[in-house]
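Need the bound structure for adenosine-5'-diphosphate, inputs here:
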Amino acid sequence: MSTYHPLTESEAIQVARSLTNIFESEGELVSREIGDGNLNLVFHVSQPSTGLSLIVKQALPYAKVVGESWPLTLDRARIESEALIIEERFAPGLVPKVYHTDNELALTIMEDLSNHVIMRQGLIEGGFYPKFAEDISDFLARTLFFTSDLGMNQQEKKLLVRSFANPELCKITEDLIFDHPYVDADTNSFDAHLREDANKLWADSELHLEVAILREKFLTHAQALLHGDLHTGSIFITPESTKIIDPEFAYFGPMGFDIGAVLANLLLHYASQEHWSPNATARDERRKYLIQSVREIWVLFESKFRALWDEHGIDRIAKTAGYQDYYLRNLLQDTIGFTGAKMVRRIVGLAHVADIDRIPEPAVRAKAQRLSLEIGTKLIKRNRQSTSIEQLIDIADSASKV
Ligand SMILES: Nc1ncnc2c1ncn2[C@@H]1O[C@H](COP(=O)(O)OP(=O)(O)O)[C@@H](O)[C@H]1O
Ligand SMILES: CSC[C@H]1O[C@H](OP(=O)(O)O)[C@H](O)[C@@H]1O
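Answer from helper R.:
Posting the output first, comments after.
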């Protein structure tokens, strides 16, 4: 079993038995492959007689969404396990518990979170999550602060940067977020009715300059250990609990990339409300809730991050007067720019979001797609002038009123 090969459902039972002591020795185990993401196998292994269960996640040597023609490193399973363990250290209770890691088989065996729902689906079904802004701002503030040069010894951080180099998964992001959506690339995928909008995107040199600047930050700014793919499909949620999964894209990059991923996915959902809300009153209420979540996430994040800095900042130079304000202003601008980039990629790039793709009526879907593109491109273009989260909110609000 120790040589790498993709597991079958019954082999997932064997590894769950032999590599963990979660299950009672008596009692049959049942296994089901439930992976619905773009990249990996995910087995749900349970023991009906005791109600115990766990998840066996295994990387495939290629990107599942495309097939064997797109080889992909198995090392991403090690990165995912190690990132989950670091995230648990700094943001306890906000990620699944890791029971076992096997780098040879590219496995992470972890806590089963099936009592939560994937947030994207929960939002589509009209869920409200009153604890989300508090939880996600905790996760962001604590993981980003304590893995940055502000909160971690700088020599230790450099060693950690080396073990999270993650070049192959970063290359996916570099291509699919910062390159392909802005040219007529083969990987792009969009509805025929968006051809003119795509042409505009490809010809917009002002936009391209801003994307180049954001890309440079993604390539060079090893600010903190990022989750790297923090969309609402990587968040398990209930009204009382939030758990962040799937950090296989983790690497040391610009903090605003993670914060922007969360905001972008709330705004993509916001852009889809004409379909998902049953009437105009519900749509307005839903949009207000989503906008308020965006505002609260930034405001809570900022105040928690500043408090961590004041209490746990590790060196004298970071306490230089004015530096914290300078840092937070740049971080807000990055967040706004990356929010925009993460919206645009989900409309014209390879991988989309169900919030928009599942709108059956083409005219309604087109409106949601154009609204996302409009908000996204404006956020990208205006990021470097921004000084307040209210500017992001104004862009979303005014685009949706047209
Ligand atoms: N810890 C978990 N508990 C329960 N279900 C999980 C867990 N991790 C993943 N899943 C299920 O598997 C799906 C794909 O997982 P994910 O980690 O997003 O895979 P990928 O890396 O391929 O995107 C999730 O949408 C969820 O349904
Ligand atoms: C070829 S990978 C495309 C896309 O898929 C990843 O998301 P997930 O694994 O959560 O489905 C990531 O967002 C990549 O950009």
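Comments: The pocket of adenosine-5'-diphosphate (ligand 1) is lined by residues 34-40, 42, 55, 57, 96, 110-114, 118, 234, 245-246, 248 (CB under 6 Å). The first helix runs from residue 9 to 19.
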